[in-house]
Each structure stands twice: as C-alpha cells, then as structure tokens.
C-alpha cells in the first residue's frame, strides 16, 4: 500500500471524527489536502506574471541606484553587504545555539515515549514526574537562549533566527504533546518518532499522524525559491540602507539633534519602508521558506496563506494572512477555550488575541532587549476592537491597507528609534528592570523643537 493510499484511508476516518467533533464544538476543523501556494498558482497565470516582474524590476533598479551611490560616494560598490554581515554576525555563537534547540526538540520525544510505555493508571507518580519534566524542560528551553543573548548580545538578524525558531519549535512541541498525551490517556495509538520528526520540520503547526504528500521533489522549484529568498534578503537590506535604519543611525550621538518636524517626516517615510518590509517579510517567511521546506519534505498542503491582500475586514485579514499560526491558535487555543462550555465566541477570541499579543511582544522584547509595547498596544488595543467591528462601512480593503501601512510604520519608527538610542548609549536608568521598560529616546536629549 502506498503512502498516499494509507493517508486516504486514515484521513477518511479522521475527517469523519473531526466533522462530528467540529459539529459538537461549533468550530470547523483543519483539513489537509494537496494544493499549491496561492502565489505559486497566480504567477503561473499570464495576467498575474506582470505583477511579479514589476517587483523584480523595481528591486533591480533600486540595486543599480545603490551601486551608483556607493561608487560616487565611497569609490567602491558594497550594496550594503557589510551591514548584512553585521546583522548575521557572531555565527560561532548563534549557529551552535540554533543546533542545540533543534537537538533538544528532537530528543524531547524520548521522555514522552518512556512515559507512554511505562505509565499505569494506578501509578500517578509516573504522570507527575513526566509533567514535571515537561514544565522544567520548557522553562530551560526558553531561559537558556535568553540568557546567552543577554550575555553576548547577538545582532538583530541572528537573534531573530534564534527566537523565531524557539517559538516555532515550542508551538510544535506543544502541538505534538497536547495531541499525543490525549491519545495515551484514551489508550489510543500515539505518534512514533518518525512522525514526530517529520512534524517538527513540516510547514504546519497542527499535528497529524499523516499528511498528504507530493510524489517527488521538484529541485528546480526548490532552486527558484532559494534564489527568491536570497533576493528578498538583499532587497530588504538595500531598502533599509537607503530609506530605513540609515535615517536613525546617528540618533543619540553627541552633536546630532533631531527636530520634531524631522521626526514627523521620518515617521511618515517609515510607513512606506514599513509596508515594504512587511511585504518582503511575508514573501520570505510565508512563501519562499515554507515552499522550500514543503518541497523538500514532499508536504502536499501548501496553503500557507490566503488572499489576505483582498481582505475587507480585520476578521478576514487575521484568518487569511498566516494560515499556519492561525491554524495553531484555532486548534489549540480557540477550540480548547470554546470546549470549556462558553456559548459565546467572545471569550475564545479574546484569549487568542491575548496569547498572540504576549508571544509577539515576547519576541520583540528578547530580540531587541527592551520592552516597548508598541506592538501590544496596536495589536491588542486596536486589533481586538477592529476584530469585532466587522466590515467597515467605508473604505473596506483600502481601510485595511491604510491601517497596515500606518500601524507597521508606527511600530517600525518607534522600535528603530529606541534601538539606536540604546545602541548609541543614551542615558540609562540605574535599575536594570526600569532600564528594560523605560524608553531611552525620551531622555536622550537629541530631540529638539
């Protein structure tokens, strides 16, 4: 029996049970099917291929402009590669650390297997010991990278890799343990090591014993996405070097002042930079990287996003722009809270927003090494009301795009301003905690009227 036939048989039984559970809980379960990523299908259509070429030519022209500027200003062409090298600096620290958290995630299966094989319902001490191990190991999994980063201060891009992977693997571990612990307690067959290993690297955050698989690896498709990934990183670096971080790098230095009028102009310019960075980040994280992983693992369901760019409400946007994370929150937060007996969807939705906001703010705080809750205020303070407002009467999709441009621009402006204020040694508070939560750019003395 082939893998696809086995999947079809098991999937039929699972979908029947899922439909019954979904009907009971009032929520729709995730279904995995063979399908390509939306942009992959769109770019095969002649009418949409021109959009791809527009962005490609814009990047090429921006690169040529940067090369000419470098040549006339410095006498050499660098294209900001020295900045790229700084951002991914200290590889002898972050690469072993990244390897370590992956090894931990893999071997974490074996304590689960021991507990599964030796537990008895009449001996709760084994359950207590296993749950204590889970809590301790997760705490260490979170603490050790934070401690190393606080000691050596990894560059921003290097820190992003570490803590993005940390959060991703934490979600994977939770999904696997949550699903299979329940199976063990119900005396059902639980996941094997091979299934756990495949799930850790499959581009999904919802655990299943089997997934639809493609027939073979398309190496030309892998090469295309790797090329696009490298191109997007270079494009992001060029944009930042021309109209992004370069505008802030002298903030906080002695003899450099920034008028309020200048900062306001920079804020509105960062709305353009922010939305460009947002689009590049989306294409990198949710298209190229996911497609590379899916193709190498022959993972069949490539619905990593839907047409979020056509959203006319924040309800639609939140549910379409990041399908893996949305699926995780829907399966392991929303459904769990809804299953507690709440008749209204308000409490589960608010819980989802709270968890998502905390995790996003955690990543920003540990990566940048300061707590500046701009993301929490915009995402939690405005995101929740917008979620319940439904479709706006005026603007619709245009309002969604205006909100994204404005919100991302504000976040980028304040985070970059505070980052360079600290990098350039603006006065800090004597207490570590207060320095961590108090913005330095305010007391820098660099802002004038």
Please describe the topology of this protein:
Blueprint: H1 3-25, H2 38-42, H3 46-74, H4 81-87, H5 91-107, H6 109-118, H7 124-152, H8 156-185, H9 193-201, H10 219-243, E1 258-259, H11 260-297, H12 314-320, H13 323-338, H14 346-368, H15 374-389, H16 397-423, H17 432-437, E2 447-448
Parallel strand pairs: 1-2
Helix pairs in contact: 3-10, 5-8, 6-7, 7-8, 8-14, 10-11, 11-16, 13-14, 14-15
Structure description:
It is built from 17 helices and two strands. It is an all-alpha fold and 449 residues long. The chain has a two-stranded parallel sheet. The model is unreliable at 1-26 (pLDDT under 50). It has helices at residues 3-25, 38-42, 46-74, 81-87, 91-107, 109-118, 124-152, 156-185, 193-201, 219-243, 260-297, 314-320, 323-338, 346-368, 374-389, 397-423, 432-437; strands at 258-259, 447-448. The chain starts with a helix and ends with a strand.
Number of strands: 2
Q: What's the gyration radius in Å?
A: 24 Å
**H/E order of the elements?**
HHHHHHHHHHEHHHHHHHE
Strand order of the biggest β-sheet: 1-2
Number of separate helices: 17
Question: How large is the share of residues in beta strands?
Answer: under 5%
User: How far is the first residue's CA from the last residue's CA?
Assistant: 75 Å
């Amino acid at each position: 029996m082939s893998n696809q036939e086995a999947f079809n048989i098991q999937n039929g039984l699972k979908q029947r049970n899922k439909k019954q559970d979904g009907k009971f809980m009032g929520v729709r379960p995730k279904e995995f099917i063979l399908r390509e990523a939306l942009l992959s299908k769109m770019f095969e259509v002649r009418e949409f291929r021109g959009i791809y070429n527009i962005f490609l030519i814009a990047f090429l022209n921006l690169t040529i402009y940067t090369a000419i500027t470098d040549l006339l200003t410095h006498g050499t062409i660098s294209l900001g590669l020295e900045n790229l090298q700084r951002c991914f600096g200290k590889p002898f620290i972050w690469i072993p650390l990244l390897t370590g958290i992956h090894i931990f995630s893999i071997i974490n299966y074996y304590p689960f297997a021991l507990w599964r094989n030796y537990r008895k319902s009449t001996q709760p001490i084994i359950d207590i010991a296993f749950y204590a191990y889970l809590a301790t190991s997760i705490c260490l999994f979170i603490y050790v990278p934070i401690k190393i980063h606080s000691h050596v201060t990894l560059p921003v891009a290097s820190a992003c890799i570490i803590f993005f992977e940390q959060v991703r693997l934490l979600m994977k571990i939770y999904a696997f343990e949550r699903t299979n612990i329940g199976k063990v307690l119900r005396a059902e067959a639980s996941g094997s090591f091979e299934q756990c290993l495949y799930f850790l690297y499959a581009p999904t955050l919802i655990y299943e014993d089997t997934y639809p698989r493609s027939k073979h690896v398309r190496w030309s498709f892998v090469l295309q996405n790797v090329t696009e990934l490298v191109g997007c990183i270079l494009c992001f670096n060029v944009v930042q070097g021309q109209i992004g971080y370069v505008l802030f790098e002298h903030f906080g230095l002695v003899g450099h002042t920034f008028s309020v009028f200048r900062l306001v102009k920079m804020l509105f310019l960062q709305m353009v930079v922010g939305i460009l960075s947002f689009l590049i980040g989306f294409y990198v994280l949710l298209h190229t990287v996911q497609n590379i992983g899916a193709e190498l693992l022959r993972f069949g369901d490539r619905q990593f996003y839907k047409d979020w760019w056509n959203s006319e409400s924040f309800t639609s946007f939140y549910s379409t722009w990041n399908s893996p994370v949305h699926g995780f929150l829907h399966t392991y937060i929303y459904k769990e809270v809804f299953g507690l007996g709440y008749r209204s969807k308000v409490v589960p939705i608010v819980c989802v927003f709270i968890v998502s906001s905390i995790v996003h703010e955690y990543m920003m705080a540990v990566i940048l090494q300061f707590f500046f809750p701009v993301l929490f205020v915009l995402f939690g303070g405005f995101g929740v009301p917008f979620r319940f407002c439904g479709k706006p009467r005026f603007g619709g999709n245009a309002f969604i795009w205006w909100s994204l441009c404005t919100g991302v621009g504000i976040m980028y402006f304040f985070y970059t301003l505070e980052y360079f204020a600290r990098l350039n040694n603006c006065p800090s508070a004597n207490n570590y905690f207060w320095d961590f939560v108090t913005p330095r750019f305010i007391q820098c003395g660099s802002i004038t009227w």
